[in-house]
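Pilot study result, target chain (97 residues):
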Amino acid sequence: MKNVIEQILDEKYTGNIRIPGTNGEVFTFEQIALIHLDIDSFVILHPIDKDVLPDDVLVFKIEFTTDEASLILEEDEAIIQDVFDEYYALYKKQKNS
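Predicted structure:
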């Protein structure tokens, strides 16, 4: 079975993304988009939960080190806006194709 990062980076993977929390709980997400900005990669994830609105999403940065990769919740509003600007530009380009 692929790890979380491998699932996110696999364009053919369509299953849910399960991310373990710090207290042992597991959070389940639907992947919306993988976005590349300059040298950084981000993923937009929608939580799968009955109390979540359809347009609630989180942006995670994929941090690559020499040995591994990890997800870091992005909190910088300017970066989040840049991620969504790129997402909308890609969506518009795909829609017009």
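One observation from the pilot: The first strand starts at residue 17 and ends at 20. A full batch analysis is planned for the follow-on phase.
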